[in-house]
Task: inverse folding
């Protein structure tokens, strides 16, 4: 039975701080081997989870959602109205996306997503979050100095573009719909998806181009 | 909880490593920790309790150790708290319990079904009508509770406007204490200049999802 | 500055080591660092600039390294900034400059005179009349500047009462930027229940010394 | 010339973080030897400063102030009115005490001193601050949970005693005047001073007794 008692857990943390091996890999190994011994997890299942998030579940899912929205006005309209159903059409509904919202970049609006309190992220369509997204530097600065953050990512915003920062404090998750790059008339959905960068769907990349890598 | 995890607007953390190699996991143990967190948990944990356990990590460890290391510490502490593991077992790396029945192995197809099944919904039907409508002006509460909360420190005591109503959602503060209570949830929009003195009239805005009990109506 | 140094009310730091051995210095280097700070400084440093340099230390170092180690880092960084030392010199541990005239040695008697001479006063005569009188109700300002300030985060946007007026004192925020400007300084008293939700009606109070520009009159 | 530029200093700190030796003793040694080479300090002077604060300038000064206030009503009245002049009578005026205030414990009031923003302390009458006074634990908790802090120090306060916490945010410094212990009639000033603990002058000790150590 879980205690739900912060004081009890603080004490456990202090014991662990003194007694766990310093190396992270050893900590995880100890946890895994004990859980396996106790029959609480299975190593082959862990392998399968790692493989799923290494290969299939990643930002290329989000890129396809974006490309489809660029090409198919009906899909885009459904995506903006009800992103959950729209990504479910593609089989992408899953971890942390049951309350997904899509926010659209325009000529005068730039969106940036952060989780200042932990590291919430729309896993089932973007995969594992980049390390920088989880750092104190990004989490502290994205809400206070979004233009400075964007500059570090090479995004130079005109003063008249409004920055909208989305802090993921509840179970809603945000996906940025970047602007379709110029000179891509006639591109296929697959070709367009290749132009969509992961960072553009978080908001730390703005101007996609036929030369950018997805 | 007013801890170091509440990072929005804090200064001193330096530049961002924008040149990070784009791979899901930067070491094997990261992938395994992620995977463990997907398939091993105690039945009565809530996502909010798990977050709270992570917030309770020693502040220096929280800020300095690798990200998935904090997941390991959170999972280990939460398992010890709920009785699946003991401190002795994790420190000695030896199970004291008689092995139970093994979980059946899951293959890749099972995993994809499991990922879809992770689309947990947090919205609930409640009888109470929402106290605010889109466009209403509100003030966020000033005093932060000692327990888990999702009203960031930088957005306390600040004027905002209701941008959207999301229906009622499971209230994080209560859920972190093991109680499922739903409350109306809103997107509240704040002008940068109301949050940060240096923002001045910059027209940037910050959108934060906040439960009804974090809010008071603006006084006219 | 909204940094990790601003610790009042933060949670998660655990128990206090109340059994510490009562000696001035717990290692030789601590005593020497203390002493260096007493007799070596650049002429245009202010105490507030020195404090700000200390606040700017990497947050994890600030929280985890020994106390007088942070003095060493502060002194080294401030000397590099003001040109007495270079980064190369401190890293290579070799002076690049031609030795100047040595400071004369001071003996114990000199030191006692020096200690007395350290009774620096920060009160100044100014023309402006104080805006508040003892008993006046005030509100502290809500928005914290990015630079050095001495209005702690836990006491922002809070109602207080003027407990005492100390005359005008050198204003820390300006002094940390190299400008000496004096401003009226007050002791402001806060009810615990206005600062901390869990304090309720507990009759404890917190007294904080605050400059006039941190305050606004309470609205009636 | 000092830059007074936080960004410049942050950069210096980051360089130092990467390049300074990890051991504190080595850092201080490097600093001292460079300053000596450059003629900015003298090693014998440093020795003399260390000796002064190891031997003479310490809490026994504060204890004498307290004992004198217990015995001499005129001194106590001057101390409460103008602590700076009062300690100057004893030759104790000095570092960080030019704006000293004395706050008195009574049967219904307990005072506790902290510096939440750094570690301000009345050096010339109490010497070097204890480590615990400078820790994040004390600085964070003293203003929010003073009764919990006092309990850890073994001070059990009745609910009807008001706790007054003094956060040293400006250049004022605070000295707690503890209550005179019972059964000390006829004690000399020197005998009384021996009963005054350092912690009682910070506020983390309350009830002095003829058996307590100064």
Result:
């Amino acid at each position: 039975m879980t205690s739900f008692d912060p004081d009890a857990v603080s004490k456990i943390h202090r014991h662990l701080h003194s007694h766990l091996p310093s190396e992270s890999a050893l900590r995880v190994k100890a946890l895994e081997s004990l859980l396996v011994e106790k029959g609480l997890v299975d190593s082959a299942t862990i392998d399968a989870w790692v493989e799923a998030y290494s290969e299939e579940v990643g930002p290329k899912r989000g890129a396809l959602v974006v490309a489809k929205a660029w090409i198919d006005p009906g899909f885009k309209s459904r995506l903006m109205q009800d992103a959950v159903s729209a990504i479910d059409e593609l089989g992408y509904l899953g971890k942390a996306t049951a309350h997904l919202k899509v926010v659209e970049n325009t000529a005068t609006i730039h969106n940036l997503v952060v989780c200042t309190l932990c590291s919430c992220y729309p896993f089932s369509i973007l995969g594992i979050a980049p390390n920088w997204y989880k750092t104190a530097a990004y989490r502290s600065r994205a809400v206070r100095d979004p233009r400075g953050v964007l500059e570090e990512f090479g995004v130079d915003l005109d003063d008249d573009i409004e920055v909208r920062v989305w802090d993921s404090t509840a179970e809603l998750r945000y996906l940025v719909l970047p602007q379709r790059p110029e000179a891509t008339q006639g591109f296929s959905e697959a070709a367009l998806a290749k132009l969509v960068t992961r960072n553009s769907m978080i908001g730390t990349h703005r101007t996609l181009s036929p030369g950018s890598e997805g | 909880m007013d801890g170091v995890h509440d990072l929005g607007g804090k200064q001193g953390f330096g530049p961002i490593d924008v040149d990070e190699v784009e791979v899901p996991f930067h070491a094997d143990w990261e992938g395994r920790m992620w995977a463990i967190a997907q398939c091993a948990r105690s039945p009565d944990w809530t996502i909010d309790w798990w977050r709270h356990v992570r917030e309770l990590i020693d502040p220096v460890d929280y800020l300095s150790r690798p990200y998935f290391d904090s997941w390991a510490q959170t999972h280990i502490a939460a398992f010890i708290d709920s009785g699946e593991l003991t401190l002795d077992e994790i420190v000695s790396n030896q199970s004291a319990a008689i092995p139970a029945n093994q979980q059946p192995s899951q293959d890749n197809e099972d995993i994809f079904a499991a990922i879809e099944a992770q689309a947990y919904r947090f919205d609930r039907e409640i009888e109470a009508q929402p106290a605010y409508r889109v466009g209403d002006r509100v003030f966020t509460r000033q005093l932060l509770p000692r327990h888990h909360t999702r009203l960031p420190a930088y957005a306390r005591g600040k004027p905002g406007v209701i941008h959207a109503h999301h229906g009622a959602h499971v209230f994080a503060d209560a859920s972190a204490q093991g109680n499922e209570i739903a409350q109306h949830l809103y997107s509240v929009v704040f002008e940068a200049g109301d949050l940060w003195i240096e923002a001045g009239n910059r027209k940037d805005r910050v959108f934060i999802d906040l439960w009804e009990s974090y809010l008071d109506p603006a006084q006219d």
